[in-house]
Amino acid sequence: MSNKTAVVVLVLLAGIMSARQQLFVSPGGPGNLPGENLMKSKGFLGTGGPDEYGYRWIDSDTVGGPVYNWVDITSTGVEVTGLADDNVVGPFDIGFDFPFYWYKVNRFWINSNGVISFSSNWLWIPYDGGSIIPNPILPNDVVAPLGGDLNFALGRGRVYYYTNNRDSLVVSFIDVPEWHYGSDTAGSHTFQLILYKGDSSITFQYGPQRGFFQYGYPGIVPACGIGIENATGQIGLQYLLNNNPTQNLYEDSLAILFYPPDTTELQIRDIGVLESANEGNMGFFLMVGDTFRPYMIVENTGNQDVGCYSVCFRIKRLPGTYVYVDSVVGGPLAVGARDTLFFAQWVPSEITKYMIRSKVQLIGDMLPSNDSVIVDMRTTPVEGWLTYLNDTVNFTLYSWLTAWGGYGARFTPPYYPCDVESVALLLSTGGMGTADAILMVMDDDGPDGMPGTILLQDTVTVADTLEWYFLTIEPGQIVISEGSFYVGFIQLENRKPSLAFDYTPPVSRQAMEYTGTWAPYRLRDFVDPAIKVYIKPKNVETDEKMQFASKADDMPRVLSLTPGIARDYLKVVLSSPGLGDISIDLYDVSGKLVKSVEKVDLSPGKNELTIDTSGLPDGVYFLSLRKRRKDISARFVVLH
Predict the structure, then answer these.
(1) Which of 168, 93, 183 is nearest to 589 (CA)?
(2) Which of helix, strand or coil describes residue 545?
(3) CB contact set of 631 (below 8 Å; sequence gap of 6+)
(4) Handedness of CA 74, 77, 79, 84 (dihedral sign)
(5) How far apart are CA 230 and CA 336, in angstroms?
(6) How far apart are the first and last CA of the chain?
(7) Which one of 189, 218, 494, 575 is most buried, counting C-beta atoms within 10 A?
(8) Quick check: helix, strand or coil at residue 447?
């Protein structure tokens, strides 16, 4: 689907000697693609860097540079599914701890536009400077072998990844077409990235390249970027920014090696807010009278251990003054470590809008951009409308250039079970006549909690004027007993109809987009869709019989699993409010229970547990933490 917004081997790599001298000894390649190759000329860049940390690059056109030798993983790797147009899948396990800048990473997300991130499932869209590396705008922690506007929704293009679970990861993009305005068949790009723990190097290799990148309308400079960037987006190294057929800056059979310094003089003292109040810093609803347990997860994103730091958690009534302020002191915190801090409980007494502001303060902090987070919170009655809107008068209309694009939002009710009685979306064609659209309600049973089963849908005809369009639901037809649900809109004509969006902060970050598959909306950090849902308790006579979806959440969070390859033991580091015990089970990849751990009574804050794995055969396993109906899991590998 070529939708664009109208507004804007087992051990193939074991033969690697020093990766800075000769990269690969394994032959093989993806084969040639048909069509004229527009990237034939030899590059002239040669070498580059260092960035502020000390990373440099050298390419295969340079004496002493890496040797191009494609690593074919199509028969040994895992084929990645779910990639479409402008979406992200993952996370996937690297299989080992890979040193990247001054910290280590062990998982990654794959973006359909030729990029991976070690810490973010946000989209990476190469437009309006979005291809510039480094860039503090999310996502960060980026490795971009060929960040351009690729389009898997055309039915072509494959991605594979392979890890030997020791020191090597390969991710290959094969025969991926470009998105072009007015053309759905242009271009084809084959490239791969390789992480090698032995010397912390990152290598990009380029197979056949046909076509060039373009974003939006004809005449706009083709946008693509090649490079690497750290977790804050403040430090990075760019090999290429943009290209076109008359300025060929990369070519077939090219290899680029990014390598770190042996030592660095850069000392980064930094602590950032990773999460506050709700998973993913997303907006949420809270019942009046429910108990809210504020928390904040902080991370040492510098390369210096820190001792004492302070964090502050504030709740502001909108519009108005702060109704809650609490602060605690944390530390010490080692490089790359995370900690969860908890604050005094709070019980809301009125139905209104709130803004949560969380901040960490560290003397000598060098990167203030990650010191604070704002989260949207709404208190609700037992029965009524749920919406993320702030401004109910001023809206911006968004549609897609082509049909079958859409928008939506995720809703998590403040109690269970609840009966969804109606949904409403604010729609218009913007003076372009009438047009049809599909309204739908979806369960969160898709991959990674994304939209899955369609619970109800209907087609409406949208007029020129801006109006609310309702999807009426029979009582008891949609009952939410756990988790979340989604409300979506899909336009059936080019450029119309449009959905209204609100730009007034704070925003919920719950907005979704549909471009052949559902994904978090690329502008969700700035806007909220004009969508609302009406809920009421299901077969509940009194409030006391409801189960609050309370934010006094007693589920722990997995901070780390070590060592990277478990042998005789697995060390589990958790953060928890400490509100009761929890069950821990181990499963193999077939889902068979292989080991149960007695219930553990967790204390508030950080907890460390050691699990005996000496009796487990080599293989991949999942650690499951369960309390009541909730269940979270983490993957690990046993290799004796």
Answers:
(1) 93
(2) helix
(3) 624, 625
(4) negative
(5) 13
(6) 46
(7) 189
(8) helix
Query: What are the distances in angstroms from CA 139 to CA 100, 233, 295, 349, 473?
Result: 16, 8, 23, 37, 38
In this structure, the number of other CB atoms found within 10 A of the CB of residue 437 comes to 24
Rounded Cα gap, residues 487 and 471, in angstroms: 10
Q: Are 235 and 219 in contact (CB under 8 A)?
A: no
pLDDT class of 32 with cuts at 50, 70, 90? very low
Separation of alpha carbons 85 and 405, rounded Å: 11
Number of Cβ atoms within 10 Å of the Cβ of 470: 15
Of the listed ranges 19-28, 69-78, 284-293, the one predicted with least confidence: 19-28
What is the per-residue DSSP string for 31-62? -PPSS--S--SPP---EE---SS--EEEETTS
Q: What percent of the residues of the chain are helix, what percent strand, and what percent coil, each to the nearest 5?
A: 5, 50, 50
| Domains, in order of start, for the chain | 41-259 (no CATH), 271-380 (2.60.40.10), 384-545 (2.60.120), 557-638 (2.60.40.2550)
Structure tokens at 360: 């960490």
CB 285 within 8 A of CB 388: no
For 446-488, the pLDDT digits (tens) are 887 899 999 999 999 999 999 999 998 998 999 999 889 999 9
Residue 386, SS3 per DSSP = strand
**Token reading at 523:** 């502008």
How far apart CA 175 and CA 210 sit, in angstroms, is: 9
Contacts of 183 (CB under 8 A, 6+ apart): none
Q: Token pair of 178, please?
A: 């470009």
Side chain identity at residue 602, one-letter code:
L
Which H or E element spans position 144? Answer: strand 142-148
- Residue labelled with tokens 């604070």: 372
R_g of the chain, CA atoms, integer Å: 25
Among the listed residues 377, 380, 379, 390, the one whose alpha carbon sits nearest the alpha carbon of residue 314 = 377
Q: Rounded to whole angstroms, what are the CA distances from 122 to 94, 213, 577, 611?
A: 19, 21, 28, 34
Cα–Cα distance for residue pair 327/404, rounded to 1 Å: 48
Q: How many CB atoms within 10 Å of residue 77?
A: 20
Tokens of 108: 């990654």
> Using an 8 Å Cβ cutoff, are 15 and 25 in contact?
yes
Question: Hey, is 403 helix, strand or coil?
Answer: coil
What does the pLDDT look like over 297-341, one tens digit per residue? 898 888 889 999 999 999 999 998 999 999 999 889 988 888 888
Kindly report which listed range (228-242, 346-360, 476-490, 523-537) carries the lowest average pLDDT score. Answer: 228-242
- pTM over 0.70, yes/no: no
Q: How far apart are CA 361 and CA 434, in angstroms?
A: 54
Count how many residues are written for the chain: 640
